[in-house]
# Entry
Amino acid sequence: MTVHLPGLLDTDAIRKDFPILERLLHGDRPLVYLDNAATSQTPRQVIDAMTHYYANSNANVHRGVHVLAEEATALYEGARDKVAQFINAPSRDEVIFTKNSSEAINLVANMLTWADEPFKVGVGADVVITEMEHHSNIVPWQLLAQRTGTKLKWFGLTDEGRLDLSNIEQVITEETKVVSVVHTSNILGTVNDLEPIVRRAHDVGALVVVDASQAAPHTVLDVQALGADFVAFTGHKMCGPTGIGVLWGRLGLLEELPPFLGGGEMIETVTMSASTYAPAPHKFEAGTPPITEAVGLGAAIDYLSAIGMDRIAAHEHAITGYAIDALNGVEGLKIIGPADNVARGAAISFTFGDIHPHDVGQVLDEQGIAVRVGHHCARPVCLRYGVPATTRASFYLYSTPSEVDALVAGLEHVRQFFG
Amino acid sequence: MTVHLPGLLDTDAIRKDFPILERLLHGDRPLVYLDNAATSQTPRQVIDAMTHYYANSNANVHRGVHVLAEEATALYEGARDKVAQFINAPSRDEVIFTKNSSEAINLVANMLTWADEPFKVGVGADVVITEMEHHSNIVPWQLLAQRTGTKLKWFGLTDEGRLDLSNIEQVITEETKVVSVVHTSNILGTVNDLEPIVRRAHDVGALVVVDASQAAPHTVLDVQALGADFVAFTGHKMCGPTGIGVLWGRLGLLEELPPFLGGGEMIETVTMSASTYAPAPHKFEAGTPPITEAVGLGAAIDYLSAIGMDRIAAHEHAITGYAIDALNGVEGLKIIGPADNVARGAAISFTFGDIHPHDVGQVLDEQGIAVRVGHHCARPVCLRYGVPATTRASFYLYSTPSEVDALVAGLEHVRQFFG
Amino acid sequence: MKLDGMYQEIILDHYRHPHNKGLRDPFDTEVHHVNPTCGDEVTLRVKLDGEKVLDVSYEGQGCSISQASTSVMTDLVIGHTIEDALNAGDEFLALMQSKGQGEPDEDVLEDAVAFVGVSKYPARVKCALLGWMAFKDATAQALQTTEGQK
Amino acid sequence: MKLDGMYQEIILDHYRHPHNKGLRDPFDTEVHHVNPTCGDEVTLRVKLDGEKVLDVSYEGQGCSISQASTSVMTDLVIGHTIEDALNAGDEFLALMQSKGQGEPDEDVLEDAVAFVGVSKYPARVKCALLGWMAFKDATAQALQTTEGQK
Ligand SMILES: Cc1ncc(COP(=O)(O)O)c(C=O)c1O
Ligand SMILES: Cc1ncc(COP(=O)(O)O)c(C=O)c1O
# Structure
């Protein structure tokens, strides 16, 4: 029986674009890929764009006068244009290519580590994060704190899996230099209301960094509407390749803040004793950039945009609602994170009686169902909710209601196995 | 007329592996790709390995219990084994994947920026480089110097394009904490004799970093024989993809030195207030690594190893010798760098009368010949030899004597054009 | 079902009815080990007596593999000589690194031979080793203390 | 040959026999501009007189495009009003950004229309603009100084 939910995409057509979805596991089990928050699958269009690049235009970018170098440069810089348009950036020069989200966030932390006033951090200044951050938005700030003496503060979480902003005036104060917060939690699924945080941060003159790693793939991301100063995301979660991420930053800030990595491409002129730097974004892109990966990310953006990010968001909302209902019907299963389908992304974490997530994941795998188990690089969330780990199912544009059904059936099997 | 040189590889067979070499430019001109020092071309075997990965095993690495995650992890860590074997590393844990050579060198510079004694840099300590470094081995050390007060010193160059080590005792002193030097110059082609540098540096207790970006692709690279403490190289110059580089470092050092980027994968345990770090190499690999790129680099290493790095070196030596002779016969052409074929890599820079390299490159391009023009990210070398820029032809395992002939004929055409 | 290779009945038995679980006195040393990738934890006590392992007791949480493996381990070491116990640990480690190819010696490893299937699942090998590593660590610490007292 | 689209005879003529090359006195301001990606350099002097560009002279090294473009530029601005000269610069910039699609106004740009082919080569556009940018900068500085003296 096929379920029909309002807002679903034509997944029959979409799934044909993803070669891996045809794979059979353990002999004859069709792959049910529910690990999209870890990484997304890659459509043929993206694979082909990269293959075509290697077979036709491969060269190092910039400075070359030969045809291949000009084509490679046009493709690489063209990908920057696509990203800028995708996130509604005021200027293409605000788009910096990094190797992943983590580097993008570390880039901001390191710019600030070496910045002069008015951005200077150190003793007497503080940095604010939240208890639902991914380790990649925790550890860079811990390192900054250790290295500079800046104090690290954070927002706690409510029992419902939402940010507790009740003490916002005490957490974000005149001492706060930067507030870095996740748009959509990769473990809880929570979509945060960033507006009050951005407002308060800007009131006290702090910069706002948004970790949009779980937002860019799933919803319309408009950096101007968001009002933040920096936004980070990563290619491999949005149908793109590994090896590329993006930091968007306000041009005025990128002009004033110091560079991070030094090397080829990021300079204006070099002598042995001193160098001057290229304007943004190149100032922050040392060395040969991820050229093929930018080509792939550009193709991924074309792919997603052709379907429409609003339609993808609606599809995932429908699937997530269906999954929440179905999982709530599984005896002994407890969702960790918002239990309703409001302001919620497509990742659902849960515990399952006292069966350890490793065992849950292993038995699901045997049925071809790929979920993630563990602390999902958000160990403080596990500590907060008193669980050692969770099982997480996460959806994307190709996910179907029958995959949710397969998960529920798989869980019944898990129960029998360990019963 | 085909030229036969001793040591040449079977380029007819090899060229069939590189789809791009079949490309015609400007209508009907076969591509003569002589820009290998900027980036190498990519064999079908490498493209296929990555395509196959995306279509079959794509997943995030580590921590996953599902089949795809286990396959992806095995492939990613398998690539680390291949790199370790390729460079004769004593331990696979000494191989860190970065995004390129530049990041690898910045990684060392930043480890040292935050290190405690005995590695601590700062006022009173110095860092030694050379005048023939690529900007990626200059700017990271300039940044370290500015940030910490460490003094930057360097070896000069002889008129013949070699390192001037006559004052080695004055340059490398008891104050020296690190010596970072290029193995093979990307602009001059010089292969440096590193033995006296390593000896002197270790005598005074300094660490040695070797920029092997132009060595790993072209010759047998044995980190144990080299005796250095860190070695950096980059995937896209050795038949691999963009988006990946390698830092090899001695395990003892990697254990003692502090991490650089923070985030997922590099931690052992995280709480809001403090974290502990995973052992090397993971300590230095924050965030989702370049997984597909590692798969591609592994395939590139298989490809190169099957041919044999010694045989590739012999091939390039033969081609380079042939090219030096041929270019020396071109009136008005002057080689910048060693004029003989001794201790020399496969990159040849030259000036051509008073015709500007940009014009040389443009007219060569029109004939399908791709060379690089400019300062090749080594502006201090141009300043040293009093030239604004050079034209550079650089060879690889698929380069042929007839491509050298095409270059020489192309240069005659350039002369006529601007005559 | 292929999974049976990993979750052998003997493993599920130990998981459902663990042996020697619950911390006991007296003990020489207590250690706390964590598997950071999955949050598995064990607190383990060791009581030595000259040449012999007098007692091992533990408390912990984790997956079936880590819990069963710890239970099996206690059976294998309690009452045996320290040397035999550490030897068994080495054998078990070798088995776990065998990628499913190991041919375990049942005389040495007894119930622990059931874990051969686990060695095919790299992500689970660490689970199986958690209790063993804690035992090795606790024993080494206890021996050191005794050395110090001599 | 397609290259002829870039290296039009008129460009090669200016390259071989540049106009107004060699620094001259008197001048109001002198600027030094560099194209960091290829090492092209120009030192350029401007002498203004109220409304008009009295003189422009320069010294430099670089590729045929940058040298010819600077030579053509001097012809176009010397003796013209400052307004017309800056206008021509804007027209030329627009032409260079046209990716080969520009339809330059020969009345305004004269010999500089020959550069339309260069605009198809992104790597060379900066070369063609070097002299023009230096002129614009030197003129702006000269005007500021005059303003200051009023
Ligand atoms: C000698 C040398 N060092 C460093 C680099 C930098 O490599 P990447 O651009 O891949 O970081 C290069 C390549 O451009 C090089 O030739
Ligand atoms: C919320 C969030 N932030 C940051 C990251 C880190 O992304 P990457 O591993 O690509 O650096 C992830 C993905 O794991 C994530 O889900």
Summary: The mean pLDDT of chain B is 96. Residues A 264, 287-288; B 100-102, 134, 136-137, 182, 186, 211, 213-214, 234, 245, 377 surround pyridoxal-5'-phosphate (ligand 1) (CB under 6 Å).
